[in-house]
Every structure is written in C-alpha cells, then in structure tokens.
Design goal:
Two copies of one chain form a homodimer.
Chain A lengths: L1 H29 L6 H20 L1 H13 L8 H18 L2 H24 L2 H22 L5 H9 L5 H24 L14 H15 L6 E5 L5 E5 L2 E6 L6 H19 L16 H15 L3 H14 L1 H4 L4 H7 L17 H17 L7 H13 L25 H21 L2 H6 L4 H10 L9 H9 L6 H15 L2
Parallel strand pairs in A: 1-3
Antiparallel strand pairs in A: 2-3
Chain lengths: 499, 499
C-alpha cells in the first residue's frame, strides 16, 4: 500500500488548504472588519487556485492509478477503495476546470459576498447586480468546462447533488407541487394558528443560551465546534474535530435563532460524526447537500417542531421566559411554531411553504442558466413568482431577491437540495423510528442519544464513501421518494388545522 | 518593468498564503474549540511549507535577478528598489532553511501552543516540557541552517531584530542593568505608591468599551481592524486593511485590559499605517520587533501612563466607574498606574522592572541555545533568576516559566526586542515632541492626530523598506541609545517617588 500511503499524504495537504479556505470564509462572515474584504478576496482566490493545482497535479493522477491497483483486492466498501474511487471522480471533475477559472471564481465570489452584504443592508440590488452578473458568467463557464448531457444546469447541480439531473428535480418538484397546492389551500381555508406569543421580546442572551443547551442535548459537541453570529446562518467544517455553526438572533421573533441553531446543528453533527479514518481526505464531509439537508431538517422539524420535543422542552423554555410564555399553554405554543403562512423569507418559512420558496429559486436559476432571464430582470421575475406561488410581492429587494447569500457565493444549483433534504429527512426518520421502537417516547424524555447513534451508524460515519442513492438504498431498500414526506405533512398539518 | 510586475504578482500569492496562516493562528488563539488543535497543526504546517516553497521557488530567484536589473536606475529609496532588496534578503534566508524543517516547526509549534495553554491552566510544566524540547531542538536546527558568525543565538535574533547581535544586546543590557538597579533600589527605599483603587470590581463590558473608545481616539481604525479576547494579548495582520488585536480582561485589576489594549493598538496602528503601495509584499509589516515594540510602548506608557493623558481621560473613566473611582483624585490614580514593584508576571510589570523580566528571559535563552541549560532544569533556573533579580520566587510554574506563549511558538530570540522597543520609544517620542511643539498639551486635550500623523510619516508608512538602524538614523540622526530612556525613567519616577 505504498502508493496509497503517499496518496493519502498528498490528499492531507489538499484538505489542509481547503480547510484554510473554509476558515477564511467563516471569518469573513463572522468577524472580519469591512475593510478586510478586498484582501480576503485575494487570499481566497490564491488558496482556491492552490487547492485546485494540488488536486489536478499530474503526480496525484499517477498515484491514484497506482493506488487503484493496490486496493483492487480489498472490500469494495473499504475506506481505501472508496477514497480512491471518490477522489478520482473529484479529480476528473477538477481537471476539467481551468485553474484560472477557479481563481477568477474565488475572487469574484469573495467580492460578491461583500457586495451582497452591503446591498442587502442598503436594499440596493443595483450595486449587487454587476457582481452577480460576473459570478453567473463565470459559473456558466464552469458548467461548460465540467460538461453535461442534457443541460448546463446538470453540471452545476452535480456539484451539490452528484448524479442528479435537472429533469429529475423538475419531475419530483412537479409532483410535489401538485400535492402541495391543495394542502396549502386547505390550510388557508381554516382559521390561522396564532403565533403572537413568539413575537414578544426575548433577550438575545437567553435565546442564545437556550438554543445551545438544546443542541448540547442533541449531541452537538462543543469541544469540537462552536456557534457564532452571522447575517445568514450556515455551518462549515475545518475538520471533523472543528465544526462551526452560525445563527442570527431576532429579539422579537423567537423561532429565528432557535430553529436556525437546531438546523445548523443537524448539519454540524453530520460533519462531527464522520469516521476519523476519513480525516484529511475529501471524503470527510456529507455525501450530498440533499443528504446534508435531511440531517438539518430532521433535527429542526421532525424533532424540533414535534409535540414530544416540546413536552420535554416547553417547561424549560417557560422557565427562561416566564413573562412572555408563562400564560401560554404547551399546545398553543406547539401550534404557534407550526403556523403555516405564505411569507417572504425562505429561512423563516414554515415546513410546507418552504418548498415553494425553493421551487421559485430553482425555476429562476434554470432561466438564468438557460439565458432566458437576465440578472437585470431578476428582481421583477422574483417578485412575479412570489406573487404567483405565495400571493405576496416583496416590498423591497432586501426582503426579496437579496435575502439569500447563495448566489453571491456562486452557489447556483444548490437550492433544490433543500427540498430534496426535506423529502429524505422523513424517509430516514421513519426508518429510524422503525428500528428504534419508541422514538417519540425517547424524544419526549429528552433522550436523543439513540436517534443520534442511529444517524451516526447509518449516515454520518460514512462521509462521502457512499453516494446519496447508495446510502438511501442501504438504509431504506429504495430510492428518493416524496410520498413519506407528503404523508407526514398531511398527517401533521391535517391534525393541527383540523382538516 | 515587466519582470518586476511578474515578481509582484508572485509575491502577492506568497503574501496571501502567509495571511491565511495568520488568520488560522489568530483563530487558534481566539475562537477555535479545543478539539480543533490537531487538525489546525496540520493546516498550519501545510501553509507554512507552501509559503516557504513559493518563496524559495527557482522562478522567484530568476525574477528577483531580472527585476533587480530593471530597478537599478531608480531612486534607491523607491518602493520598487526596496521591494527587490528586502525580498532578496528574505529569500536568501528562506533558501537556507529546508522545507521539511519549516513544516516540522509549524506542526511542532502548533501542538506546543495547545500544550502550553493546557499546561498553564493546569500548572503542569511536565506536560509542556517535551513540546518545548522539540521546539528548541528544531529551532537550533534552524539557527544552524540560517548560519551565524558569533553565536547560533544571532541567527535567531536576526529573525526579529535584523542585523543585531547577541553580543550587542548583552552590552546594552549590561549598561542598562547597571543604571536600573540603583533606580529600583532608590524606589524601594521610598514609600510604596498605593494602587488599591485599581483592584476593585470593574465590569468586563465597561472595561472593554473604555479601552476601545481610547484607541479609537488614538486612531486605531475599526473599519480595518477589531479586538477580541485571548489568553495572551497579541496583534496580527492579514493586510493593512485587516489588523486584529486581542486583550484579556481581569475584573478586579483595571490596568490589565486597558494597557493591554493601548499596547496592542500601538502595534496595530503601525501595521494599519503601512503605505498601500507595499500591499501584498513581504514589506507590508513592521521593520523589526524593536521598532514594533517602540510603537506599542509609546502609546501604552509614554502616552497612556502620562499625566496629560489622564488629565483628559480620568474624568471619563470616573464617569464609567463612579463607585470605584469617584473618591480617588487624578494624581492618586496617576500614581497608582505608575506604581513600581517587583512582580512575577511580565505583561503586568511596571515600566522599570519590566526590563528585568526581559533580561531574565534573554539570559535563559542564551543558556538554552548554548546547551548549558536543559529544558528540564528551566523552571528551577527561572525561579532562581527571579529571586536574584526581583527578590521573588514564583509560587507556581503558571506564575513563572509557563506565563508566556512565546517559546511555544518557537519565538526564541524575541524577548530582548521588548526592551529595545522601550529604549527606541523614548528616542522617537522626544523627536516627535521636538517636531510637534506642545505634544504634552495636545495629549492633555485628547488630540492624538498630530502624534499619529508624525509616526505615520516617519515610521509607519515605510513598512520594512528601511531597517531599524536606517529608520533611527533618518529620524534622530543617530543610532540606538539607552540614555534617553534612562533620563525619562529617572525624571518620571524620581518625581513620582520624590527621589
């Protein structure tokens, strides 16, 4: 295994450079002073170029070939075999993208992130527009370089949801939308659930402490991670032993920080749970963004917005906020955090309409990539789709097209994975419930270790060894399926709304 | 200037990697969870190796030769000429140190920093000892690789105070000590100054805000910098537009955070003041640690512990802490912050005895490097020297040999620059006072812009273009001189103690 050992050493160096990039990005979103943006753009561009050069270096190609021969006799599911296989796929893709394009993208997106943050604060899409145009132009160049069969969008989607095609997403989304719309309509005909109790004054410090206490109970390891603030919540990792999450706190809207924290902790526990045997390889990460999102949504929604969860935590929350919640009973609070209502901001949307937010972005991306929509026309197109799907027009671009950081990062093809994650979360949760017996009872007792261990065993530890499809097949015996989520949604919200 | 332009592009990439390293080190000291240490050590080692490889690359050597020819006709003090000259010196030194040693040192020091932090908390030198032994061993290898004429210590000192020799430091320190000891003795014979008013309960948040308000007045630019907490205060920069400082807050000892903040801001304003024309070169930094320390000590002591400074700020400080300081008059407070007393902790020592702390470390380093002192015997040697020089024996190693982070970073040869900085600070301050007229009056009015501009003009903007000796020659017409500091110390403390 001499070549494999040398390969791993090289992969370690690449992982180090990628981790450094992640640290610099994290710092940019959390602590970096405004004046540091230009220099940071240079730094990220250089690290991006170096990481790309190191992965595409001829010697890695040679070592991969030699290592493939060395591992040929091993179990096809062994770490060694999968490291060679997944790295080869990554390298083949990286070789197709020129180093200059990688560097240009890194610089353009670093500047675009700064411009986005300012544009959002100042509600000024015009100042962000040239940055987004540049990012889109470079992203399309990347799609061409990567190659595709049906549509350039497939090449971009493959970065986040390997092996998935835009046409498959369209098919799933079309089916889902057809079932969702009647459910949203049925809910709209019922009396609204009252969530006024969530809109009282909740101190930042107490919100922060409560969220961190819950995720510590879930199993987020603060020895190997931490939470900071940023304009837009995210999770990132520099190693399985250093996984960072961020959230934002809204003093007069309790769900924002709390469910943001539970969500990002779901992502983070996935990264913290990857087997140490994959350390400092490209496999020490989630296997696809859909699977990643299944973890965040599972903890945020299937656990965090469930009745048993609040059986355990509501008395504690009332203890923290006696003036605000003392007179609100648990059932009323549970209804409040599950209120369904068409709204403008994706990250604050309910479980049902969230998917409409995703579909809007997916449709807009398809048009941007196809060239049938110009960036200049994006705010109008955004607003029109919100009016059509949700019956709302954003009063400002800050509440509309500027709300998400993703496009400034060049993350085009990323949004659909959010809804894929919702679907998978229920597939996994149902299987866990079947395997663990009384999962609801465990959650009601604040016992999260069995669920966490189940996810670790079946999902987390494998990192990127198995594709999303392989993983689902191993766990459920089948593939992606929207029906379990639809059953869950109809059951839960049917009961809540008396449909 | 085609080759020069290509050289600058390459130097930009090297600066980016070094900046990334600095970000990762900053994060390690401020926010990184404990579990992240091992991975961070790998990341820093890889970045250190890459930066070293990039600087020692043959093409940089070729470009430097070609660029030297291109700039031959320019003003010898031009940015272009100095960039070539200083980079050549840096590269010549870097070429002498093998990449493997750079990498080993980066990894060993990253691990040693973690071990030091834990050892200090747990007062457990034994757990730090093997790390320090390894760091010393590698540092001695580095000294041999760099080469020297008189002593391996010279090769290490040259990293921090270019062109200075251990024998010169010894000569200056011997003279200084001969004059210092009678002053300390004369002070000891006088009644002690009462500093009980500094040891009351001062809220962390108010201390933090007061310190930040003062350095904002000084001219520290928070758009291009920030302050965070760490176990040991430091300053670092990722660009002249992103300069970070840290401090620590002790609730019942006011000077710790405040003077730490003023000190680090002095360093940081130097970095923030470097001319943008040197951006993304190795010259966008302070020219030597002695000159760097002259800036921190100037703002901390010559400004921050002066009578005119407190004329301006004491009413404000009393306003923040009326219960603690309302009954203490300004003269009493000024005496309190200037109390001279032999103590155990360098960073909390007074202006006079501080230099004895430095001399102890310098002497111990000389012995460690000469091999006449083993790391195992360091705590005993440390304690013996403290007893001899200051009449005190540390009750624990945490208050003794474990108090400083420096050696865990591999910073051997660094300590003497603190005292060199003290000496230079007075040389510069006297010249500024001569040029600016009523400097004391300006400080008394809270007008720091003239002093800041003078330092920017004469020191900051040049970055590393001129050596410490050149800079002193340009400003004062002479070289390093201990007499101005001795005159200052005798005058100030003679008056305070009625000697």
């Amino acid at each position: 295994m001499e070549k494999f050992t040398r390969l791993r050493e090289r992969l370690g160096h690449i992982a180090d450079v990628q981790a450094a990039q992640a640290v610099l990005s994290w710092d940019q979103e959390t602590y970096m002073p405004a004046g540091g943006g230009e220099a940071r753009a240079h730094q990220l561009a250089t690290l991006g170029r170096l990481g790309h050069e190191m992965l595409t270096d001829d010697e890695i190609g040679t070592l991969l070939e030699a290592a493939a021969a060395e591992v040929a006799g091993l179990d096809p599911d062994s770490d060694e075999t999968r490291i060679v296989q997944v790295t080869r796929r990554d390298r083949d893709k990286a070789v197709r993208v020129p180093a200059s394009l990688v560097s240009d993208l890194a610089r353009a997106t670093a500047l675009a992130q700064q411009a986005w943050a300012q544009a959002r604060t100042q509600n000024d899409f015009a100042s962000f527009r040239p940055h987004l145009e540049r990012v889109l132009e470079l992203t399309l160049q990347k799609a061409e370089a990567l190659g595709y069969e049906e549509s350039p969008y497939d090449a971009l989607l493959d970065e986040y949801e390997p092996d998935m095609k835009a046409s498959e997403v369209t098919a799933v989304f079309t089916h889902l939308r057809a079932e969702l719309v009647p459910l949203v309509e049925a809910i709209a005909e019922r009396p609204a659930l009252d969530d006024a109790c969530l809109r009282r004054d909740f101190s930042t410090a107490a919100q922060w402490a409560f969220g961190e206490a819950v995720i510590a109970d879930f199993g987020f390891d603060f020895e190997r991670g931490r939470q900071d603030r940023s304009a837009h919540p995210f999770s990132t990792n520099f190693a399985t032993t250093d996984v960072r999450i961020t959230t934002r706190v809204v003093e007069n809207f309790l769900p924002s920080a709390l469910f943001g924290t539970l969500h990002e902790a779901g992502h983070a526990m996935y990264e913290q749970g990857v087997d140490r045997g994959l350390d400092r390889t490209g496999l020490a990460a989630g296997t696809s963004l859909g699977i990643h999102e299944s973890q965040s949504r599972l903890w945020e929604n299937l656990v965090g917005r469930s009745e048993p969860f609040w059986e355990h935590y509501y008395p504690k929350l009332q203890g923290e906020f006696p003036d605000q919640l003392g007179a609100i009973d648990r059932a009323a609070f549970h209804r409040a955090v599950n209120r369904v209502e068409p709204s403008l901001i994706r990250v604050e949307a309910d479980e049902i309409t969230y998917n409409l937010h995703v579909m809007i972005r997916f449709e807009l991306e398809l048009e941007l990539v196809a060239g049938t929509l110009a960036v200049a026309d994006l705010p109008a197109a955004w607003n029109a789709k919100y009016e059509e799907a949700l019956g709302l027009t954003p009063p400002t671009d800050a509440d509309g097209v500027l709300q998400d950081i993703h496009w400034s990062f060049g993350l085009i093809g990323y949004f659909p994975t959010y809804t894929l994650g919702n679907l998978v979360s229920v597939q996994l949760f149902n299987q866990a419930a079947q395997d663990l017996g009384d999962l609801e009872g465990q959650i009601g007792n604040g016992e999260f270790a069995p669920l966490r261990a189940w996810l670790q065993e079946h999902v987390h530890r494998h990192g990127r060894k198995f594709s999303a499809q392989e993983l689902l097949q191993r766990i459920t015996g089948g593939g992606l399926d929207a029906e379990p989520w639809l059953d869950y949604a109809r059951g839960k919200f049917g009961a809540l709304y008396g449909i």
